[in-house]
Amino acid sequence: MILKNPAGEFPRISESAYVCESAVITGNVIIGENVFIAPHSSIRADEPDSKVIIKNNCNIQDNVTVHSLANTTAIIDDFTSLAHGCIVHGPIKIGKNCFIGFNSVVYASSIGDRCFISHRALVKDVRIPDNRVVEDGWIINRQDYVNKLEKITDELIEFANNVAHTNIMLTKYYSKIRDV
Predict the structure, then answer these.
(1) Where are the domains of the chain?
(2) What is the pLDDT of residues 88-139, one digit of tens each?
(3) pLDDT tens, residue by residue, 67-80
(4) How far apart are CA 60 and CA 88, in angstroms?
(5) Residue 47 known to be catalytic
(6) Is the sign of the CA dihedral 36, 16, 23, 42 positive or negative?
(7) Which residues pair with 111 in a beta bridge?
(8) Is cis: bond before 6, omega within 30 of 0?
(9) Which fold has domain 2-178?
(10) Active-site pick, 15, 47, 155, 158
């Protein structure tokens, strides 16, 4: 479902993106090329002067929520995967080639490129540099905790890349059958 926000703004969605019919996208949302939006996702920029930008080749999996507070922006950069049930809340910037795990919450933070936020993690009010891993269930809500984060492994980079590319393939597949 595509809805305008109270300011009358409608989402702008690339022709090459795939949006499942049960997803809800509201307001000042920009969705780039080859983006996959799975069932029951909610992407909202409905508060005053809020914005959501999802760049190219991203995937927003089942039951994901992306929302921005008034006067803030949520940016998800290229080739980033938001896995099942996670919450991404603006103000937020997530870099390129990132993976945000199942049921994780990421809020009011800046996440560098090639970061892997594992399942059930909480990331709040911090800046995470490139190439870092937040382990399963960790709470990272102080900048000094960020210093303890390990660098991402080749295996996790490969996993994140595979998830991104699989969802690009699904985007193309579902777009093709939608047009039949």
Answers:
(1) 2-178
(2) 999 999 999 999 999 999 999 999 999 999 999 999 999 999 999 999 999 9
(3) 999 999 999 999 99
(4) 10
(5) yes
(6) positive
(7) 94, 128
(8) no
(9) UDP N-Acetylglucosamine Acyltransferase; domain 1 (2.160.10)
(10) 47
